[in-house]
Every structure is written in C-alpha cells, then in structure tokens.
Design brief:
alpha/beta; 439 residues; 8-stranded mixed sheet; globular
Length: 439
C-alpha cells in the first residue's frame, strides 16, 4: 500500500485543498492519504475558523483517510519550526512514502537545490540571511534576497511563503526515505477578497466570515462537508473566533499577572514592552498589532508571540519537542482505510499512537505537550463562548463511513471492531434550515 501525506490547516478547507488531495493521489498513485493538521490555533497566530474536530471530519469526508493533530507548539512556530515538527510526525508514522505540499514555484528542482545549499551550511548565504533579518526584513524577504545573492535565484522570480515552507519541509526530510512532491498553488491565494477565480484563498474566505457574511453564501467555493460545519458552527455560536477576542486574556497576562515573557519562544528584547503598549491602545487588538508591526515584527509573528505567551510555550519546550521527546500521534478523524493505516502505525511507527487522549496522562510523567494541548483547547473554547473544557478527553476520534455520513465516535481500541450506525443523516440539516416548518 502506497501512503502519501499532506501537512495542512484547512482553515477552512476549500476547493483548492480538494484539488491538492486529488492531485496528490493521482500523481503518486497513493492508496491512502494521511493529513497532519493544525489544531485549535494556526501558523498565522490566529484561532482556527472552526474547531479542529469539525475541520478533521470535513477532511475525511473530502478525501483524507486519517487526520492527525499537529501539536500547538509546532503550529505556532515560524516556517522552520512548523516544518520540522510536522515532518517529525510524518516520519513518526513509519508508513509514509510521499510528502506532498503546495508551492508558488510548482517545481521541486529549484526548491531542492536551495534546500541542499542551505543544509550544507553555505556560510555566505546564512550571513546574508541574518544580515537581512537584523536590518528588519521579514524571514521571507531576507531568504529571497539571500537566495538571489548566493543561490542564483532569478531576480524576476520571487520566493513565496509556500516556497519557503516547502524548502523547510525538504530540509526536514533530509536522510529520510520519504519522497517529496510539490503542486503549484492555483488562484490568488493571498487575496482578501473573493473574486470570480476558480479557487478563492482561505484568507478571503476567512475575511468574509469574520466580517459577518453568512457561511451559506460561500458554499460554491467550499466542499459541502466543510460548508456544513461552517454553517452549524455559525448557528451554534453566532460568530467565528478572531484574534481580537484574545485582548482581555493578554491584558490579564501582562497588566494583572505581570508575566515575564523572556523565556517565551522567539522572544526578543523589547517585545514585552511593545505588547504592553499595544493593549493600552483604544482600538481592537488586530488593528493595534498591525499598527505596531514592522518588516521585522510582522503581524503574523506578533500574533504568534501573543498566543505562545498565553500558552506559556518556551523555546526550551519547542527544542525538546523537536528532539522527539514525548511526542505522540493523536488521530482526530479517520475512515475504514484510516483504520488499516492506524493498525500499521501501531506496528511500524516510531511514535506512540494514542488510543485515547487520556493515555498520555497515565503513568508517572504525563507529556507536557498534551497538557499544553488541553490548555489550547480550553482557550479556544473561551473564545467561542463554549463550555466544554474537557472535550480533549471526551471527544474520541471520529470514524467516517461514506455510505452513511452520520459518523460515529469510537475508541481506537475498537479499530478492528464492526461499527454500527443509526439511520439518521445530518447532511439534511442544512436543507432543513431553509424550511421554517423544520426549524
């Protein structure tokens, strides 16, 4: 059985992601697809547009066979940390043959060349990169300049953020038997506005939802399982979570508790004082952070630092995790093929597969990464106005059966047991919403 993997956030899952899944299977001939997906918070330093369980369930209904959660201390890192942590999980399954990622280049050769040169400790390249960062350039711009100067990058070609991330994936795969492949990104994926293009960006879709547009108005751009989840989430909570809702938590941390942030990952002298000035401004948090941002401290970096501070993620925590200490594989959703994958992972994987989330808390030394995941889920629940602060323990991975979309929750100890589903089909819920007699 050939197995491919994708590292994703699906925030939200849209037609471009669907194309990526289908094209990955077509090009690799893979029989199964594993997705490593960010959980409650994503790499831009924002709360996910809907919770991880709904996004994972939508993914398995759209082509993924097994969705595994990317721990929050990896999902809130810059490109290098995000890539190294994600690839560590891919390797840890022990069964993946291909890693597929999207890129602006759409061509593996130049990315592999740059990854190889960077990995060879090209002194001039790294000196130019660091000089650019010291001058206040973002990582993407500094890396682009260094690549032009030392690696022969065409000055008319610009490295995109996905190219940078792809290079980091390739560096993290060094020495592995996993074969990389890349698929060109389609559409204007950085645009904040929905146009008539084939694949509107996830950024545009989130922008539309956060300004109050109905999720139903976006159904033509989003696969039905994801559209259903967005609709039900909007009906249940009235709005989608945003960075602005972090403001009182940040005020509590800095003004009441006066927390020392110097141990937080990616801290630099002055960042704590910058945040204190930000939260005293009479404007929403995103606007204040944007006003305080610069080429050195991009908005995404500031937002990540806010969340790393609230979750107390130190550089030591990240370094420990990148060494593989107390890492784990936590399934969020799967189908029948995913059941077979999990059976193989239990036998062939180098990382433990958690049958139950609570397993990580059994024994004398519970994983600190799991404790942090509970904290992240609880913070997310506060942002959406929910009350289920124990859902990491009460939500088991969900099995999706295509012939009956009403998935069922089950313990992974039962992965070889038959699954009995009732006759209800909650895919009809959205249709009922338009019928006053049924609401």
């Amino acid at each position: 059985m050939k197995v491919a993997a994708i590292i994703a956030e699906y925030n939200p899952l849209h037609q471009g992601h669907l194309f990526h899944m289908e094209e990955t299977k077509r090009r690799t001939g893979a029989d199964a697809l594993i997705v490593i997906m960010s959980g409650s918070f994503v790499q831009r330093g924002e709360p996910a547009i809907v919770d991880k369980y709904r996004r994972a369930n939508a993914a398995t209904q759209c082509g993924a066979d097994l969705v595994i959660e990317l721990p929050v201390l990896f999902s809130l890192q810059s490109a290098e940390g995000f890539a190294r942590g994600s690839v560590a999980l891919v390797k840890g399954t022990g069964i993946v043959d291909y890693l597929s990622f999207g890129s602006e280049a759409g061509d593996l050769a130049p990315l592999e060349r740059m990854a190889a040169l960077q990995a060879q400790s090209n002194v001039e390249y790294h000196l130019t990169l660091r000089r650019g960062l010291a001058q206040g350039l973002s990582y993407t711009k500094a890396a682009h300049h260094a690549a032009q100067t030392h690696l022969g990058l065409d000055r008319h070609k610009r490295l995109g953020s996905n190219d940078i991330l792809g290079i980091e994936y390739l560096k993290a795969l060094e020495g592995s038997k996993i074969k990389p492949m890349t698929i060109a990104r389609r559409g204007s994926y950085l645009s904040k506005e929905i146009t008539k293009e084939q694949h509107p960006s996830a950024t545009a879709l989130r922008h539309s939802l956060l300004r109050g547009d109905s999720a139903r108005s976006l159904e033509e751009h989003i696969p039905f399982p994801m559209a259903k989840s967005l609709n039900l989430f909007q009906l249940e909570y009235g709005q989608f979570p945003s960075v602005n809702q972090l403001r009182p938590h940040l005020q509590q941390l800095l003004l009441i508790e006066e927390r020392d942030l110097r141990t937080i990952t990616r801290y630099e002298t002055g960042l704590d004082n910058l945040l204190k000035k930000v939260i005293r401004r009479n404007e929403d948090l995103v606007t204040a952070l944007y006003t305080a941002s610069s080429t050195r401290y991009t908005l995404s970096r500031l937002q990540r630092f806010v969340l790393n501070s609230l979750l107390n993620i130190s550089q030591g925590d990240v370094d420990q995790a990148l060494l593989g200490e107390q890492l784990y594989l936590r399934p969020l959703s799967f189908n029948a093929q995913g059941q077979r994958l999990m059976s193989r992972i239990k036998k062939e994987g180098s990382l433990p597969l958690l049958s139950r989330f609570a397993e990580g808390f059994e024994g004398e030394a519970p994983s600190p990464h799991l404790k942090r995941e509970v904290k992240a889920t609880s913070l997310y629940e506060m942002l959406i106005g929910g009350r289920d602060f124990d859902q990491d323990f009460t939500n088991s991975p969900r099995l999706y059966v295509p012939d009956n979309p009403d998935s069922t929750m089950m313990n992974l100890d039962q992965i070889d047991a038959p699954v009995i589903l009732d006759d209800t089909n909650d895919f009809d819920i959205l249709k009922d919403l338009d019928d006053p007699a049924k609401t």
